[in-house]
Amino acid sequence: MYATNYHRPTSIADAVKLLKANDEAKLLAGGQTLIPTLKQRLARPGDLVDLAGVKDLSYIKVEGGKVTIGALTRHADVAASDAVKRAIPALAHLAGEIGDPAVRNRGTIGGSLANSDPTADYPAAVLGLGATIQTNERTIAGDDYFKGLFETALKPGEIITAVSFPVAEKAGYVKFPNPASRYALVGVFVAKAAGGVRVAVTGAGPCAFRQKDMEAALGKSWAASALDGIKVSASGLNGDIHASAEYRAHLIGVMAKRAVAAAG
Question: How far apart are alpha carbons 132 and 129 in whole angstroms?
Fold first, then answer.
């Protein structure tokens, strides 16, 4: 075993102080990635800062044409929320597809986005709906947030406090899951709103990204058939024991068509 100091602050300000005072400190939200990593000795932080004691970070609000979700809100709560189901049914569906019941009842939206696993589901919704990520310091546009493999725009000592999703006219999310982990080998979120059409992909690359060719095609005709003939390049996509880059490129097209059909 190795020594780890456990901290349970009761405010975001106290959590930030702990992070800045300990260079190797790690935040603990739902812990669905961090705890297994600690067990495997792939991470050995000297300090763990548990956000569970911070009040008012678990909530869902629908107002002003937006669904705002507190950072510590569990996936299961988003999936079960009648307010989310009415405003953005695709977002509730996405949350219900994350992992298994154990993961959904412990994992949080803030923890998922802070970790930015390349196969996570929420990043597709952030880009697909043009969401904004609120932190203790600023608001970050979803398009500016994902930078690379497990890399985000968050600065040291910056903590996600909430995520705001604009309500879309139509939206759909479909993924091809790994049968064991339920992570997305490829997931595609499509949305049609006043600002235009957005198509976001997760699971295929180092981080979530938008598919501009599909956005242009769907902007002209909102129908799965509009995507016929669009070829997705395998260059830069992930390839592993579960799926080659070429197969993931193919799946992007298949999942995109299914997402449009799901959106109606």
Answer: 9
Which pLDDT tens digit goes with each residue over 111-131?
A: 999 999 999 999 999 999 999
Beta bridge partners of 60: 69
- The helix (run of H) or strand (run of E) holding residue 101 is helix 101-104
SS3 171: strand
Q: Residue 137 gets which letter from DSSP?
A: S
- Whether the pLDDT of residue 192 is over 90: the answer is yes
What are phi and psi for residue 30, nearest 5 degrees? Answer: -80, -30
CA-nearest of 58, 237, 259, 107 to 168 is 259
Q: What is the pLDDT of residues 91-117, one digit of tens each?
A: 999 999 999 999 999 999 999 999 999
Say if CB 189 and CB 91 are below 8 A apart: no
Q: Nearest 5°: CA angle at 56, between 138 and 86?
A: 90
Nearest to 205 by CA among 140, 260, 252: 252
The CA-atom distances, in angstroms, between 236 and each of 15, 143, 209, 243 are 37, 19, 12, 14
Rounded average pLDDT over 39-63: 90
Q: What CATH number does the domain located at 170-263 have?
A: 3.30.390.50
Task: Specify the 3-state DSSP secondary structure of 254.
Answer: helix
Distances from the Cα of 167 to the Cα of 55, 68, 178, angstroms = 26, 10, 29
d(CA 66, CA 31): 27
Which positions ≥6 away from 48 have C-beta within 8 Å?
4, 5, 6, 7, 25, 26, 28
Pick the CATH number of 1-50 from 3.40.640.10, 3.40.50.880, 3.40.50.300, 3.30.43.10: 3.30.43.10
